[in-house]
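Weekly puzzle thread! Below is a chain. First person to post its structure in token form gets bragging rights.
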Amino acid sequence: MKSLIAQSHPLSDPKAQLDVINNKTEKLKSLEKFEDKLEEIGLEPLKPTGIEIFQINVGYMCNMTCKHCHVDAGPDRKEIMTKETLQYCLDALQDSDIETVDLTGGAPEMNPHFRWFVDEVSKLGKHIIVRSNLTILDTRKFEDLPQFMADRGVEITCSLPFYSKRRTDIQRGEGTYDKSMKVLKLLNSIGYGKEETGLRLNLVYNPVGAFLPPNQEELQQQYKERLWNDHEIVFNDLYTITNLPISRYLTFLVESGNLEDYMEKLITAFNPGAAQGVMCRNTISIGWDGTLYDCDFNQMLQMKTNHGAPDHIKDWDLDKLNNREIVVDQHCYGCTAGMGSSCGGATV
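Winning reply:
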């Protein structure tokens, strides 16, 4: 099998990705359109419960090339949100009661306007989450950022595939685990992960293979025990996130012959309770070029907001977006399988 790390942009065309997902799953006896499943439980059309989280992908550039990355991020990506588009985001937030701004990438820290934007959002009194890969904070150019973010009360949510070195390095590259432990210790030293400081530090678990995440609470306890016993590292919460069949992970499923089995797992594990709490109901996703999406996964498939809602940040209209119909397809089974999946972990 080809190395996924070596591939540049596997199945990079969004339409091709959707075609592969739908064509490969036609043979499944359990196949049912996601919309039909929602109709069975009274959620079709899927509607927002009210936008509470303003999630911005500030660019696909990253210092890493992880096997599971649904963004297909890496050092070669040039898509970066401009200061003009970031200002449109600030304008939308200015008179909004949306409380949380969630910055993602790529490595969001690599956007050249990152520090300016965090400062401006802080002035608006919004809570900021930065989704970090940890290793970026172990480079000279970004070594000031842990204290910078602590001074502004930024919540840090970071990827750590497992509490052991071997499994982490398999998924994210050799040396990742040691660098991650170094940065986590640094974050702890300035107060992150300690309840009394209010500086929240969360970890994210993605499965390495073609399976669903285990129980989030049980895995969190395992992480806490191992990281404390092995490194005296503490953190607040662990989020388990299901890998959706998009980009590099879709390529892995196709090349390993696991796509049909994986889609069947997702479909048969459909949980009505998880569907109630999917992140697209309280989140709006803004792409690096300002395009609006119902979620980060739809963004990667270029499935824009629709049904009368604006599809670009410069045309922001909170009322229309709060009353839109959410665009769905077969990949959405990933967020409703088992205990559910969102950027904040399990949904039930």
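Puzzle host: Confirmed. Bonus trivia for everyone else. The first helix runs from residue 14 to 24.
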